[in-house]
Amino acid sequence: MAQLLRGRSSIDPRFTHIRPAVYALSRVNFSGFTYGGGNGQHQQQQQHNRHRLLRNPNYGGWQYSYQSSRGYGMLIGRVLRGVLKLRYLVLGGAIGGGVTLNKRYEEWKDGLPDMKWLEEVLPDNDKWAGFTRSLLAAKDSVKDSIEIDPRLKQLSENKINEWRQWFDQRLDAAIEAAETQQNPQIESSFQNLSELVSELYGATREELRQKNTVNAKSLSAEESRKRVDTLQSQVDALQTEIMNVQLKYQREIEKLEKENRDLRQQYLIIRTNRKQPTKKRIKKSLIDMYSEVLDELSGYDTTYSTADHLPRVVVVGDQSSGKTSVLEAIAQARIFPRGSGEMMTRAPVKVTLSEGPYHVAQFRDSEREYDLTKDSDLADLRRDVEIRMRNSVRGGKTVSMDVISMTVKGPGLQRMVLVDLPGIISTQTVDMAADTKDSIKHMTEHYMSNPNAIILCIQDGSVDAERSNVTDLVAQCDPLGKRTIFVMTKVDMAEDLADPNRIRKILSGKLFPMKALGYFAVVTGRGRKDDSIETIRDYEEKFFKTSKLFQSGVTMSHQVTTRNLSLAVADRFWKMVRETIEQQADAFKATRFNLETEWKNNFPRLRESGRDELFEKAKGEVLDEVVNLSQVSPKKWEELLNAKLWEMLSNYVFENVYLPAAQSGSQSSFNTMVDIKLRQWAEQALPAKSVEAGWVALQKEFQHLMEVARKTPDHDDLYDNLKSAVIDESIRRHSWEDKAIDMLRVIQLNTLEDRNVHDKQEWDQAVKFFETSVKEKLKLTEQTISEMFGPSTSQKWLQWRYATDEQTKRKHVKGELDKILSSDSRHSPTLSYDELTTVRKNLQRGNVEVETDYIRETWYPIYRLHFLKQALNRAYDCRKAYYLYTQQGAQCEVNCSDVVLFWRIQQVIKVTANALRQQVVNREARRLDKEIKEVLDEYGEDDDKKQQLLTGKRVTLAEELIRVRHIQEKLEEFINALNQEK
Question: Which of 240, 381, 449, 611 is the most buried (most CB within 10 A)?
């Protein structure tokens, strides 16, 4: 059957690229199939019964009860019939089974998916064959190059055989995996090589030591010494040879790894660029999903007991101990800024390492990708990292707790999450904040206190171990060393300075009080800032190849190089992730239940909404009010603008135009002065004041609409602070268009040129306007007089009010001034010197001493009250004087010049209000709408503003519930993906 399948696969052109699958199918054992349907099953049952019959000892070789010859004949006939029947059954079953198998094979072949797309993805047969031959040749060359010393065979024959067999199996597995383009074990297939060599070397040394001890007892001192020296030289030679063999294997391993990375990179590029028939959602990698969970947890803060206990690799060490260089060596890129003795790491940097077709880096909150193979992008990345670190430090601080998150992808990178922390310092400099040392220590303890955090403890090998600050801190957080990995950096500088025995103690965990899972020695640079990662890796490999520390047995091969370090850290990282992720998800599930219960008890009829959703709802309500502003009727706008204009202009009209002109003494001088003052006013202050009045009216109406909305039954006062802040900020930014002032100036000047009232209706309106205005001023003046002169007689008797001494004194002065006005009703606005002297002397007779200025202060409100009463009387006289005014004009017997003045003012206010209304409806309301939207957009991007303006238990509880629910969903999504990967 296997040959039949091979023949069919060679005929069909669709199977030319899937030989491994067909070969695997050809090796399937078909003995378990049921041939021929029910007949085959019946045949198997008969054969089973027959074998059981033959093997049953009770029958004794076909012994039956029949003793006669007829019985023997019948028995022979039955046997022949059974044999013939069995032959036909076997032949029929084979034919039927073959037909059935061929039919099932055809159905299986037709059910296979179309594999033509593999022709575009995979190379052709010639390339695969060439690649396979090159791997086989490499295998043969590696096998032929291995020459084992006979002394090594004699000392440990079993170990060498085990070693050779193990390596042959791994090499064959690597070739087979590369041939099928699936090589998941290539990263870890040779991890135990150095351990095996170390074990072999240790066993050899131990055997020689025991042998030397036994022989030394039976030999003389000199012979024993010679024998020991000879054996020692043999051991050294053997060790050197073992090291050379190991390095040779290491080079072959690295060569295969490089080829594997290139193949994986090509495969990932083809898979990424391959056109899909339909657009599908991009599936996130496992490490990216885990990194998102950590980002969500980094800003999570709650009063509940749920804490972030998910694993991450925390890189800690003293300042300038090489922490950042170790992280860069693992990431295979110089991604961090560098300085000469200056503190460069000022904030935690979370680096997520993952595999990808290109070597790129990207910040979590940015869309830009930095190509790490280009020097220009590397320089930009380092500069952006430094800028982010300096921006995170605020308020005079030196370090910050704000996390800078970035992702680094590349072929062959180990998947893990590392957090680089500021180095621990012993002494603060003058340019640092006073609490810098304690802040760094507390930050380091905070990250290490996570019971599932992997602590990557970095120790500078070039300095004395006693000067280390980080080891004691790590020992306090992880006394048993269950999650600590110790790394000694700058070993190349320590080789000539340090005692090898001391380094051996450090790497074996016998010098420091701290304990660790593993101890590693690495070289992460040559002290040059511009060295690339490839240069550093070559230097590290060359150093450990020729290092005295390595050759003398101080360090074992599995304890050196950043590659071995990254493999060990990644393995431990994923082991802890799998052990703790379920517990973390259960903790957040319980927290979510508690929050949902509290929400139902406090807000049973409301849906939980976060600040973003609440802000969007408030934003919609504010914009609806802006729309309502455009629906205000023109009549209402004119009424609002008329009222606001007169409110802001009335004081100027009375104090600067009407009173000075009316008190001039004659009608001609009154008109002349009015014309001059009105023109000056229209050219200078009136347009700007009118625009100000329009803007105030617009604000007032908008705020009125907001107040009306607040009184609706469905109003939610949660948004009031936000709405008020938005409106106030928009109003503060808004300014009326400058060209509106020039347009108003022209209109107002033209309107003031008209001095003739056109009809009786306008005359009546002007008289009414004049009367109303005078009455308002008269009321204000009476209030002023009441405050200056105290209560009247009726108020004293009815309200029990009494006058003060000052008020009594002013009453005496008022009595003398009233005599002057009663004797001359047309008195001028000012008192003469003689009149002042007379009033003062009259008061002295009554024992009241006053100054001249005191008399003038008292005279001003008294004369104003007298003048306004006269003006009000003239308004009464002018009500029916319109026709007399039209006939006699300026020579009219009734002086109505003040009515004409107020008519002109009234006309200016009308045309100004109409112009402002058009500007509000057509321009200013839209501009205000635009500014409100801009403010809303700015507040929408400012989380601090939203947190400041949207407050209360309802908001905080909903925010926390939404956050916990989101984190739990992320955790469950990650757990599902993690289980699928298993």
Answer: 381
